[in-house]
Structure formats: C-alpha cells, structure tokens
Amino acid sequence: MLVNPMTTTTRALRYIGSAGSRPFSGTGRACAKNRIYPARIRREDELNTLTLMSASSRVPLITLWMAHWCQSCKIVSPMIQDLIEKEGVGEEQGGLSFVEVEMDSPDLGGLAGIGLRYGINSIPTLLAFDRQEPQVETKISRLDDLKSREFLTKWLETEAKRHGQGGSGGSLFGLFGR
Fold first, then answer.
1. Domains held by the chain: number
2. DSSP H or E stretch at residue 108
3. pLDDT tens for residues 120-148?
4. Which residues contact 157 (CB under 8 A, 6 or more apart)?
5. How far does Cα 78 stand from its chain's mean position?
6. 14 lies in a domain?
C-alpha cells in the first residue's frame, strides 16, 4: 500500500518522529514537553490519528475548532499557541499537545458533520481529548473566556493534569440526558 507523503497525518507522524528525545511511554510525564502540530486537521482520519497518538502517550490533545473566515479565531489561536509553546503552560502538569481543526474544510462537514458529533455549536471552541474521549463538559466556546490569558492558563493546566486519567466527558449523554 502506497502512502501519500503529503497527507497531514503522515506529516504529523513525521513531525513527532523527528522530535527524537520525546518518549511515548508514560515514564517521562513530569518533564514532558508540549507539542504543537503544525498542520491543521482537515479530515476526520487525521483527527482520529492524533487522538490515538494522544491516548498512547497519555498526553491530552487540545483542539481549537476554527475557520479561515473567523476573525475571533485569528486572535485566539496565536494566544493559545503562545501559552503552550513559549510559556510552557501545562508542561509541569504532564504536557499537552495542540492542533487546530479547520471546520470550513469540505472533508469535515462543518458544524453539521463532525462538529455535531463532538458538541461543537460555535467557533472558535476549545475541546480537549483524553484517552480518545472528547471532554465535552469542559469545552470552551465563550469568547470572553477564550480571549482571557488567565482563564486559558488555568484551563490548560487543568486539562494537562489528566494525562490519561479521563473524567469530565466522553459522552454526549451527560449533556442531553438518556
């Protein structure tokens, strides 16, 4: 089977593989480095690959659901990336990985497709995945919260503490009842 070297999934795997010193085992969590994936998610299989990698490394995956036309997203995304990459928010708690999910990609189906499955009803929205489970109860879509560095710092630290322990999400039944 031939693999297209230009797919985002392959690039994401190559990016992780190039890190060299970053172990996938759970032994180095206390000094784990945060990861920012350079390519935006444009297809569901790419998101599935990253959530699986997150589960195997026991490092929560933070996703920012955004669109090219969204002006608020252009403010929020750089601030989150700065907190994770430059300030190292979450590293002391076990580390985080971050990727943007491009909701206006035709392959994702927008808010009516994959967005509906994960309870995304507005953009921008931050949603964490832990053990491949979306933490829907802690997702953030309120713009004032998304623009607050203090709020985001606390939220990112809380999500980083999960490191494979789960909790606070995984099912939409909690939102809508059984």
1. 1
2. none
3. 999 999 999 999 999 999 999 999 999 99
4. 89, 90, 92, 93
5. 14
6. no
Residue 50 maps to a domain: yes
| Structural domain for 41, as ranges | 29-164
Cα–Cα distances (Å) from 53 to 131, 132, 147, in that order, read: 9, 9, 28
Residue type, 33: K
Tell me the C-alpha distance between 8 and 97, whole Å. 16
Band (pLDDT 50/70/90 cuts) for residue 26 is: very low
Q: How crowded is the C-beta side of 100, counted as CA atoms within 13 Å?
A: 21
Instruction: Give pTM, 2 decimals.
Output: 0.76
Tell me the one-letter amino acid at 53: M
The CATH number for 61's domain is 3.40.30.10
Q: Which residues does residue 62 pair with via DSSP β-bridges, in sequence order?
A: 98, 128
Residue from 41, 24, 40 nearest 32 by CA: 24
Pairing of strands 133-134, 35-36: unpaired
Q: By the 8 A CB rule, do 145 and 157 touch?
A: no
Between CA 70 and CA 143 the distance in angstroms is: 12
Q: Tokens at residue 175, please? A: 């939102």
Q: Is residue 153 part of a domain?
A: yes
Written as six digits, the tokens of 14 are 């190559």
Q: Is residue 101 part of a domain?
A: yes
Tell me the two tokens of residue 46: 């790419």
Whether the Cβ atoms of residue 40 and residue 100 lie closer than 8 Å to each other: yes
